[in-house]
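Could someone model adenosine-5'-triphosphate with this protein?
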Amino acid sequence: MKRILILHYHEIWLKGENKNYFLSRLRAAIRQTLEDLPVASLHSVSERLILTPGDDAALPQIVERLRRVFGLAYIAPAHEVPSALEPLAAEACAMMAEANPANFAVRVKIADSNYGMNSLEMERELGRRVLEHLRARDATVRVKLVNPEVTCQVEIVPGKALIYTQRVEGPGGLPAVTSGRLVALLSGGFDSSVAAYKMMRRGCHITFVHFFATPSPGRSSSAGVAEEIVRALTPYQFTSRLYRIPFDAIQRQIVAGAHQSFRVLLYRRLMARIAREIARTERALGMVTGDNVSQVASQTLHNLAALDQGIGLPVYRPLAGDDKSEILRWARQIGTYKISCEPFEDCCPRFMPRAPAIFARAQELDEAEGRLNIDALIRMGLEGAACTEYKFERGEVTQRENSPRRFENLRREKNSMEGQPAAHNAASNLSA
Ligand code: ATP
Ligand code: MG
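Reply:
Sure, complex below.
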């Protein structure tokens, strides 16, 4: 008997001609995730992957890591035996004796057209033998086809049978980095981390953008929280980039120049405008936010519609229709819940108006923006950006600071323009 892992993917086989592409990305993601762990082989066998460990003792750690590989529907720690009935039945009996259920079922899948029996015949035959074996110890054991305590799963592939009684859920979705790039507005709160995760799970590679304000004395900055969240999410997509953008000065100008009821919406529009510039340099095809319809005043349908007008980039809101309890469940599952629970100072509620607009129209926001120097505010954000690169390798996330080179030309331009009249400043069309 040999111990192996069966890795099942559900959606990839639906992908027609692209199947090989998705499968090769899935295999690459598995290899990268397990880089530092002993893996003897990884083979495709009849619409599943079979992983043989180099050392059985590493199996629990391998399974734990695989739970973060997008594309995997479930992982089954299994025993591999020859597919002939006798060795197969003996192993099934031994495994079920160990599981020791009060009731059970046997399920057989046959992916070998030359196998002499069909799956129904096999289920009956194995069920009979397992029942006899278990009853030798406990006469009350019975077969229960609906909702059994333990299911003995048998998968027959050419030349061998794979048997298991437990399986571990995978994250599902599509393999990492198969769908293109998006920019996520990451606040440090529960919602935006889950929103980014959900799009990562659809194969999108996420670049994170976080806006922070200098915290009041005794409070911590949201930037540290955002960094920790990116560290927690990086193993799912292997590399991440986080832009941190100081927002104090921008907020002060909005507070000084716009009606209080539009403040929060203008902060949000400015965030989106700055993120759009980052999306351009990153060649990202859209933006992700953690908005959730009507959760807070800025998230009414009217306000969301007004916010998106003129942004010129698709805005994905994967949590739009979720309940908070569902979002929190996701946050716990993906490991961001505890991080977002840390107290930090969010910049959005700053200078919170007493009566925020809940039915804003795009035109009203445009007019309010018209009274501000939006191009200058966008430049201010980009010029202040700091950038950190994260990498998941050999089971660990490493990080390094990176100068956001892409904005260096902006800085150079600024330096060379210093002292020249504002009209000649090359800050053109940023907010168009
Ligand atoms: P979250 O839990 O993600 O903070 P929220 O329910 O608190 O969301 P808002 O504060 O209105 O709602 O923010 C809505 C969305 O705007 C966030 O989900 C996020 O995508 C974006 N956002 C808000 N604040 C910031 C920030 N400081 N930096 C980057 N994005 C932000
Ligand atoms: Mg928030």
